[in-house]
Design brief:
Radius of gyration: 40 Å
Distance between the termini: 57 Å
Strand order of the largest sheet: 2-4-5-8-6
Strand content: 5-15%
Order of helices and strands: HHHEEEEEHEEHEHHHH
Largest sheet: 5 strands, mixed, barrel
Shape: elongated
Number of strands: 8
Length: about 375
C-alpha cells in the first residue's frame, strides 16, 4: 500500500478511492490457449439435432400405424366380449341342472354362469374368508366353505357370499338353519371361472383362514377340494326344509323373534303363545306355517340377513366388464390425431436440413 502512495504521490487520498479509480493489474478476459478439437461445436450441435429429429420423425410416422392396429385389435376383442356376454346371459335363463360328477377345471369355461344344483353338506371346520370387503359401507368378508357332495364326486368350493365382520364365527350367527344349515341340503349355484393369481399378488400364508384375494388354486390345494368354484345364488326365502327335526321348533321360535323385531316398526308384532309350543306336531299359525309353499310372507329382507349373519349370495347377473368400445375409440382417435400432425409437419416443411436453414437465414440477413 505504501508503494502505491509513493508511486502516485497522493498520500492524502483514501485507499478506497484509489482502488476505485486506478487498476494496478490487468487480466486478460480471453483464454488464448483453448482446447483443440477436430470437430467444431456447431458441428456437434447440428449432428445431435439431426439425430433427434430423425428419431422423432420415425416415431411420428409409426404412431398412426401402431394406433390403428391397436384399434383394429380392440374391434375383435369387442366382438369376442359381446359374444361371451351373450352366451353367459343365455345360460342364466336355463333351468338348473345337477352338477356333473366328472367336472374339472378345464370344463368350467364352457359352463360359466350355468345354474347347477349341488346336494350334500357344508364342512364349517374348513371355512375361509376373502377380504375385507365393503357392502354398503359396512366391513365384511366373502365366505367360502367346502361342500361335501352326497354322490361321492368330491368336495367343491362354494362361495356363499358376503357376511359382516362380526358374524364370521359360526356360533355368533342367528337363523342357524339358513346361516349354518346342517345335514344334507340342496343348494342352487352358478358355475364360475375363478380369477387367477396376478403378478403383484402375494402368496397366501398357509394355514391361515384369511385370503387377501380369491385364489381358488391355493384354496383347493390347502382345503383338499376339487378346483371347482361355485357361487351360491342370492335367495331371501325361508328354508324350513333345512331345519333338523330335533332343532326345528327352537329355530322356528328364533325366526319368529327375529321377524318380530323387524316387523315391529310398521306392523303389530305377532304374539307367541308358549302353551302351543309343547308339541312339535302342533300347528303354530303365529310363528311360521311350514305346511304351505313359499310366498312373500316367508321372505326376509337383506338387512335381516346381514344382522342375523346369513351370507348374501350371488346376484344372478353377468359381472364381465366390457370397456373395449372405450379402448377402440381411444386408439382410433390417436391414430387420426397423429396422422393429422404428420401431414401438418410435412406441409410446413419442418424436416429441412438444419444447414440449409442456417444458410437461408444468413442470406436474409446479408440481403
Amino acid at each position: 500500500m505504501n508503494r502505491v502512495f509513493k508511486l502516485f504521490k497522493v498520500r492524502d487520498v483514501p485507499v478506497k478511492t484509489l482502488k476505485r479509480k486506478y487498476a494496478t493489474v490487468k487480466t486478460a478476459n480471453v483464454d488464448w490457449s483453448p482446447m483443440k478439437s477436430k470437430k467444431q461445436l456447431s458441428q456437434n450441435i447440428e449432428f445431435s439435432g439431426t439425430k433427434s429429429r430423425k428419431v422423432f420423425f420415425g416415431l411420428l410416422c409409426l404412431a398412426p400405424i401402431i394406433t390403428f392396429a391397436l384399434g383394429t385389435w380392440q374391434v375383435k376383442r369387442l366382438k369376442w366380449k359381446n359374444q361371451l356376454v351373450a352366451e353367459c346371459e343365455d345360460r342364466l335363463t336355463y333351468k338348473p341342472i345337477p352338477l356333473p360328477k366328472n367336472l374339472t377345471k378345464e370344463d368350467l369355461p364352457n359352463l360359466e354362469y350355468r345354474k347347477v344344483l349341488v346336494t350334500g353338506h357344508f364342512d364349517y371346520s374348513r371355512e375361509v374368508y376373502v377380504g375385507p370387503r365393503l357392502h354398503d359401507g359396512k366391513k365384511g368378508y366373502t365366505l367360502i366353505c367346502p361342500f361335501v357332495q352326497s354322490n361321492g364326486s368330491g368336495d367343491v368350493l362354494l362361495d356363499r357370499g358376503w357376511i359382516s365382520a362380526d358374524k364370521v364365527v359360526p356360533q355368533s350367527r342367528n337363523l342357524q338353519h339358513l346361516s349354518c344349515p346342517k345335514g344334507e341340503i340342496t343348494v342352487e349355484c352358478v358355475v364360475r371361472v375363478a380369477p387367477t393369481k396376478g403378478i403383484f399378488h402375494l402368496d397366501h400364508e398357509k394355514h391361515s383362514k384369511l385370503y387377501q384375494y380369491l385364489d381358488a388354486d391355493a384354496m383347493a390345494e390347502e382345503l383338499g377340494t376339487k378346483n371347482v368354484y361355485l357361487q351360491v345364488l342370492q335367495n331371501f326365502h325361508d328354508r324350513p326344509e333345512w331345519l333338523n327335526n330335533e332343532s326345528k321348533l327352537s329355530d322356528t321360535v328364533n325366526d319368529a323373534v327375529a321377524k318380530t323385531s323387524s316387523w315391529a316398526f310398521w306392523k303389530s308384532s305377532p304374539k307367541i303363545d308358549s302353551s302351543k309350543l309343547n308339541n312339535d306336531n302342533d300347528y303354530h299359525p303365529d310363528i311360521i306355517d311350514t305346511s304351505k309353499p313359499f310366498d312373500t310372507a316367508d321372505e326376509f329382507d337383506p338387512l335381516q340377513f346381514i344382522n342375523a349373519g346369513v351370507p348374501l349370495g350371488k346376484v344372478p347377473k353377468i359381472d364381465y366388464k366390457n370397456n373395449h368400445m372405450n379402448y377402440l375409440v381411444t386408439w382410433y382417435s390417436l391414430s387420426v390425431a397423429s396422422t393429422i400432425l404428420l401431414i401438418y409437419m410435412f406441409k410446413k416443411g419442418r424436416f429441412l436440413n438444419p444447414t440449409e436453414e442456417k444458410m437461408m437465414y444468413a442470406k436474409k440477413i446479408i440481403d
